[in-house]
Every structure is written in C-alpha cells, then in structure tokens.
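Supplementary Note 3. Input sequence used for the single-chain structure prediction.
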Amino acid sequence: MHAFVWIKRAIYLLLLVALTWAVRQALAPKPVGVDIGVIDRGPVEVTVNEEGMTRIRDTYLVVAPVAGNVLRFPVEVGDEVVEAVTVVAEIEPALPAFLDARQREELEANLAAAESAVRVAEARLAQARVAVRLAESELRRMQSLELDTLVSKRELENAELELSSRRAAANSAEAELELSRQQVDAVAARLIGPERPGLCAAVGSGTCVELKSPADGVVLQVFNESEHVVAAGENLLEIGDPDNLEIVVDLLSTDAVQVRTGQQVRIERWGGTNTLAGVVRSVEPVGFEKVSALGIEEQRVNTLIDLAPDQDTAGLGHQFRIHAAIVIWNEDDALRVPMGALFRSDGDWAVFVAADGTARSRIVQIGQWNEDHAQVLAGLEEGERVILHPGDTVADGVTIEAR
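The predicted structure, written as discrete structure tokens, is reproduced below.
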C-alpha cells in the first residue's frame, strides 16, 4: 500500500512536469523562418545599361547639284555601289511651264515679227551684195583706164575705198540676218510647252547631269524613288559602308558623367546568339532634351562605342537596336554581400547577421554595388551568414531558423 502511494505521486509529478513544459512551449515565441546568404569573395561589376542603335560611321548624302527633273533612280536600297563608277542618279532639265492663251498669242506675234525681220535682213543682204558687185566692176574699169592714163590715181583710190565700204556693208547685213534668225529661234524656244519629251531624250544625254557614287558601299536610303522635279541641294540618296559600324547610346546625363573613354562595353540583345564586345570611343560634351515614353523630359548625352574587330556580326546593319552594358567599375576578388541583405538604418547601411539561431543587427560600410552584390569595405567577414530580405518580423535578438 505504501509503495502504491509513492508510484501514484510520481505519476502525478511527471504529469505536472509535462504539463508545465507544454505550457512553456506553447507560450514561447516561435523562431522566424528566414532565407540565409553567405558573405563570400567574387567578382563585382558595375555597369550603365541602356538601349542604343547601330549606325554606319561615315555616311554620304547625295544631293542635287542643280535644279531639274531627276529620272527614276537606277539603283535601289541595298544595291552595292563603286566610288566614281556607279551612276546613282540622272538629272535632266525641267520641262517648261504651260502657256496661257495671252502668252501664246503674244509669243506667236513676236515670232511672226522676228520672221519678218529675217526677211528684211535677207533683202538688205541681197542689196548689199549687189552693191559689192557694182563696186568690184567699177574698180576693174578704173584699173584698166589707169593703164591708159585716162583716170588719175586719186580716182582709182576712191574706187578701192568704195569697194571696201560696200563689202563692210555686206558683212554688216549678213550679221544682221544671223541675229534675226537667232531671235526667231529664241522666240520659238519660248513657245515650247511641257508636251515636248524630256530634253535628255530629245537632244541626247549631253544635257543630263549624271551623279556617280561618292564612295564604295551600299545604298542605304532613297528619298523619293519616282521621277520628280528637284531643287538644287535637295536630298536624293544616302550611301554608306555597312562593314564600318559604330554604336550610339543616348545616356541620362547623370549616367554619362560616370562613363570614360576606353571603358569596356558588352553588346547584348542585338539578335545574334553571341555577346559582342566594344569600347567607349567618346562621350559627346553636349546634351539634348528627350521626352521619355512616360512623358518625362530627360537630359540625354550621346555616347559613341566602337565594336571590337574580328567578331561575328552577321546580319547587323545600319540603325539596328541593341542593348549596351558599359562597365564603369569592376573587381574580380571583392568581399561581397548580397544586395537583398542590405537595408537602411538611421542613414547607414545595415544587415542582420545570423548567429547561433539569433538575428543580430550590424552596421556595415559598402563601396560599389550592382543588382546582385555590394562590395563590403567594413563590418563583415568572409563566411558570415546574413539574412536575405528581412521582413517586419525580423529584429535584433529575434530567434530565427533557416527555411
């Protein structure tokens, strides 16, 4: 009986201990599940990323040197051209304008008057030639009489002068006739209307201007393929060498100040399977205003990039869109912390370090960073474990467990 009492008491005591432990476990805070990252060493690279566009480094714009009628172009976009050999455009004189009824009547009257002037000049020339023949006959008679001493030397000289005067008058009448004929042609030319075929076809290619390619390459753009009237200086074609490409990227001015000549560039998302390499050639010193897709006015700066030689750029052409990543800083063996572990604490960068199942807040000093990692300058050691993306349930001293 005495032993049974002790056993019963022992059972009650065990039940009390178990109940106390269960209550404490129920009331104790549960560990917060967290993701853990490790401080390690590795490459950290900082880039400025922006879309850009390829363009041919040297393009040549063919313009009309004179006003006229440009014929349909003998070349098309994509055709290869050879410098000073390939004819890329032909310009003929423009067709004359239409004449209204009054202009035509006036010109026809002027033409009739000019033709009458020709006939008058022809009659004067015939009269002058008759006078020359008479003077020649008179001179021969005087010369024969001089032999017989029947006329004086003075009379002979007068006959010679008369002949010279008559010949001069005949030459003048002949020139006047030619002038009258030219006036007829001038008035007749003014009567030509646009119904006449192009002058190149009418009188030969000597009246046409043939424009030849200013450089080797291909035709990039034809501004108007059809035959049309052009003014002097009007753009006709654009020519360039597609093997001589460069890349222009318009960066935000705040990003452009970090870019320097000679920095390496990765060309991605250009359509090929490989990533192309490039180098910054220059950053233009003048910015310009551009409105973004969201309607925000931005200050942009053009950055010029040269492609590295001996790369497979098959299919890449003029004004193709690409994505450029300009490397402005990198270190191959940097002490780094995942960016997801960092947060702001009173203006400083901080992390939660996972130590013995407890979260401990710690201020850190970081240098350069990108989307994935930040360079650690002070506050952390290699191999330490940090909490990634800590939520509101994580605080200094909170019990944690890794998910």
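Residues 101-147 form the longest helix (47 residues). The radius of gyration is 50 Å.
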